[in-house]
Write a structure and sequence with these properties.
alpha/beta, 5 helices, 40% helix
Length: 158
């Protein structure tokens, strides 16, 4: 996994900032866990998502899944080959496997998830050689901002 700040481009920063705005929307508009995702292919945003598990009564409605669903509909294709997914929290196993099936090229995440992270913290699902596709992983972009958003959300709920 790559995590050095110099590995992130201005475009990476811009898309992660957008993902953070979506995470804030999830928190403020829907009282959801603040996670946001932006899916980009060839420089174009093709899918947006934020956590909607509670709102939709759907355990699969994570931000990453929402963004991939939107992109699939937009492109009329279940394959999102080479796309980059920006997400404010390290993906879980469910989202990581969906990324593999969609053929996502790269995932850039903010805060690590030491309990369920599947991009290097707990599992290395995205780069496991046993899969027929591997996803490039870059973590830690705007990590503190993402972590603070999540920490403050959960503190307020206690």
């Amino acid at each position: 996994m790559l995590s050095a700040p110099e590995l992130f481009s201005a475009e990476d920063m811009r898309h992660m900032q957008h993902a953070l705005q979506l995470a804030t929307h999830a928190r403020d508009a829907e009282n959801e866990v603040p996670v946001g995702a932006v899916l980009v292919q060839d420089g174009e945003v093709i899918g947006l998502g934020w956590n909607r598990n509670i709102t939709l009564h759907d355990p699969t409605a994570h931000a990453e899944i929402q963004a991939m669903r939107a992109a699939g509909e937009k492109l009329s294709n279940h394959r999102l080959s080479g796309a980059t997914l920006y997400v404010t929290l390290e993906p879980c196993s469910m989202c990581a496997m969906a990324m593999i099936h969609a053929r996502i090229g790269r995932v850039v995440y903010g805060a690590a998830d030491p309990k369920t992270g599947a991009a290097g913290s707990v599992f290395d699902t995205l780069i496991d050689a046993r899969h027929n596709h591997r996803v490039e992983v870059a973590g830690g972009l705007m990590a503190e901002t993402s972590a603070t958003l999540l920490r403050d959300f959960f503190r307020a709920r206690r």
